[in-house]
Amino acid sequence: MDTSVVIVCAGNSTRMGGVNKILLPLGDRLVIGVTMLAFEKCESVKEIVIVARESDIPAIKAEAEAAGITKLAACTTGGATRQESVINGIKQISKDTQLVAIHDGARPLVKPEHIEKVIKDASVFGGATLGVPVKDTIKTVDGGLIVDTPPRKSLYITQTPQIFKRRLYFEGVDFALEHGLDFTDDCQLVEAIGGKVAMTIGDYTNIKITTPEDIKLAEVLLNM
Question: Which three-class secondary structure state does DSSP give residue 183?
Fold first, then answer.
């Protein structure tokens, strides 16, 4: 199915000491270049929209050209929250798009074959997200004390891309705006209106670059 991808990278990179992580070198490219290439290689992806800080857009466009990205349709600026940034991005997608994919610009190691798996699941269930089972035992803590231990077999680490049928996702956005809700996860938009979201199993290399040590780990994983 034709899929429009909104890559969100409008954050302030506070945990990177103010250094913009998407413009850091990673292998022969920048982080955002590696991210775009993963979607460029997907046959089901029709177009890419980038949401970024206005000051970063020229560098992103230059990287896209240097990386041979042909599917970059638009770059737009972010909002005050992640949800606002995503909404700015989806305003730029084609009107005939069937599926909308949201991806973190700082997840450059996502594999094209996993992207295609999420697209397939979203086309069946209405929504799907990439993720992996948690490896550790998780505790619920209140006031510094453990109050519960959720069963590990039902817990998953949610990654991106998160992909939805266009109509379903837009209904979720409308619901959130009408009720003043602001979510940090796009699945929550669809969950809030009773939509079903499949968990598509990926792998643990699809890390999000958040802190300085993450970029070093990403280099190692990329070389593998």
Answer: coil
- Burial class (CB within 10 angstroms; exposed 0-12, middle 13-18, buried 19+) of 188: middle
Residue 35 carries which side chain, given as an amino acid letter?
Answer: T
Can you tell me the distance from the alpha carbon of 164 to that of 170, in angstroms, rounded to the nearest whole number? Answer: 9
**In the chain, domain spans:** 3-223
Its sign, for the CA torsion 208, 209, 214, 220, is positive
CA distances 139 to 143, 145, 152, Å, are 13, 9, 10
Look at residues 210, 207, 212 and name the one whose alpha carbon lies nearest to residue 224: 207
pLDDT tens sequence across 10-27: 876 655 566 689 999 999
pLDDT at 73: 97
For residue 11, which amino acid is it? G
Nearest to 64 by CA among 111, 23, 8: 23
Please give the model's pTM, rounded to 2 decimal places: 0.94
Q: Is the dihedral of CA 104, 105, 106, 108 positive or negative?
A: positive
Tokens of 48: 């890419």
SS3 (DSSP) at 196: coil
- Is 105 within 8 Å of 90 (Cβ atoms)? no
Give Rg (Cα) of the chain.
17
CATH number of 3-223: 3.90.550.10
Give 93's DSSP letter: S
Cα dihedral sign, 48-52-57-62: negative
Mean of the per-residue pLDDT values of the chain: 94
- Find out whether 3 and 45 touch, Cβ atoms under 8 Å: yes
